[in-house]
Amino acid sequence: VVGMWILAFYVLGTVAGKEVCYQRLGCFTDDPPWSGVPGRLLTGLPDSPEHMNITFSLYTRETGNNSQVISAINSSTIQKSHFSSRRNTSFIIHGFGSTGKKGWVVEMCLLLLEVENINCIAVDWTQGANGTYISAVNNIRVIGAEVAYFIKTLQKIFRYSPHEIHLIGHSLGAHTAGEAGRRIQGIRRITGLDPAGPYFEGTPPEVRLDPSDADFVDVIHSNAAHLPAIGLGMYNTTGHLDFYPNGGTVMPGCTDLMPEMKQNATIIGGCHHSRSHEFYFESILYPTGYLGYPCETYKSFESGDCFPCSQQGCPMMGHYADRFPAKLKRVNQKYFLNTAADPPFATWRQKVFVKLSGVKKMKGDINLVFHDTEGKTKEYEIASGVLSQDQVYTKYLDVEINPKNTKKIEFLWNKTIFTLLWARLGAETVNIIHGEDGHAVTVDYSTHPLGLGPGLLDVFYNRRNIG
Ligand SMILES: *[C@@H]1O[C@H](CO)[C@@H](O)[C@H](O)[C@H]1NC(C)=O
Ligand SMILES: *[C@@H]1O[C@H](CO)[C@@H](O)[C@H](O)[C@H]1NC(C)=O
Ligand SMILES: *[C@@H]1O[C@H](CO)[C@@H](O)[C@H](O)[C@H]1NC(C)=O
Ligand SMILES: *[C@@H]1O[C@H](CO)[C@@H](O)[C@H](O)[C@H]1NC(C)=O
Ligand SMILES: *[C@@H]1O[C@H](CO)[C@@H](O)[C@H](O)[C@H]1NC(C)=O
Ligand SMILES: *[C@@H]1O[C@H](CO)[C@@H](O)[C@H](O)[C@H]1NC(C)=O
Ligand SMILES: *[C@@H]1O[C@H](CO)[C@@H](O)[C@H](O)[C@H]1NC(C)=O
Ligand SMILES: *[C@@H]1O[C@H](CO)[C@@H](O)[C@H](O)[C@H]1NC(C)=O
Q: What is its EC number (predicted)?
């Protein structure tokens, strides 16, 4: 009867002072800060766990792709499964309009299992996530409570420690992980993949993912709402380490328009927003291709201010962010990086210096192409226009080949006129600084065995004969 009374209020849409209670999980009110605070004036109450049919699917090295559904309500399902209390456990939590039964959530578990012997649990709450965005915002409180209940059950039956748990959530799933972490102290790590912005940006920490939700919280912002742009993610920092790839708002390679706040799952699953979990996935395979540089703003990063990494190194965005020694030094540390437009998205930032020799002044341009055993990159422009012998040309490049695997660097130029003079142009010095495992390494390619050698004229060759 009470339930129906509450439901009646919910349907009528009154907002203040209501409460709903669910066995096992406790009560949920819509008192502040859950509604009626700046950033979330109007909300409602979460649906019941039964209504949402929340499912935990276990993936281990034994199960492979044939996951086992386990439940904290009937803990014998956990004991009879391949869950091992001797391993760490990761929970992967999807967001609005998505699913945990297939797609990126499952692929993430399968890839994690290739590099770590863990219990990977795909959390599915499809039926709580397929209504309106606002209903999903309310529902994550129950999903977070269910995840917490599951962890408490593990504690009870195995004396399992929260310190062996990593929660990874995308969009609303990131705040779901935060809610679970608020309810269970001592979770080792929460990774927020573009935590949802609408109804969370600017709200009190209880409501959203924040650094107090786990021992370590790392965040990737890929569609951060930042006026005048419209985004699905949060702009503000919300972890210990907050990464803003490509500035955090618009991702290269995404051709769709900035997704608008429409209640349309295909738009909500927009390319920019999804990049956060794609980056995380690829970071498992290319850890050093995701170094983040500490900077105050993206503009400052773009101009080269925060390169190379300091003595303490730089964190790797994504899976290996927890390897950063200074990760807990303070909360809300901002890191910037650029990615490529296509998978695997990894790039290695390098600062290139070229000093020319030969002619005094010449019109043309200099480009670099990096080669490894598998192929070569696009051309990166170092300088164009009037080139002068006295000047050192400097450029920051985000190169799609790991400097460790670089076999050859090719110099290309456009020949304009005075072909004979061009033939006498070379590079006196070529230096490249790159961050190796986070530390700056300077390589002098003019004498480096990787190819250029002292006879620099060989490496400069004519590309196009414009003149
Ligand atoms: C609830 O989830 C379970 C496990 O995935 C599934 O077998 C069942 O069909 C779902 N129930 C509904 C009503 O969708
Ligand atoms: C895992 O199984 C699902 C169907 O259950 C399939 O769609 C997916 O491609 C499989 N993934 C891998 C990596 O085999
Ligand atoms: C609990 O799960 C086991 C399978 O692990 C099943 O045999 C049993 O019937 C379940 N109990 C209840 C009450 O659902
Ligand atoms: C659990 O994860 C931590 C951090 O990655 C690692 O140091 C530890 O060895 C892992 N434990 C097991 C049993 O694999
Ligand atoms: C959500 O999914 C369930 C099960 O597939 C369906 O019964 C329900 O109508 C869906 N809700 C909406 C709002 O689409
Ligand atoms: C962003 O975070 C800072 C520090 O936590 C806080 O002072 C500020 O009010 C936040 N801004 C918004 C818009 O949430
Ligand atoms: C949702 O977005 C897709 C792709 O943009 C579009 O085809 C579809 O018509 C939209 N649906 C609604 C209900 O707006
Ligand atoms: C060199 O060639 C490239 C590619 O054709 C072109 O974009 C660039 O403008 C040329 N530079 C000069 C200085 O002609």
A: 3.1.1.3
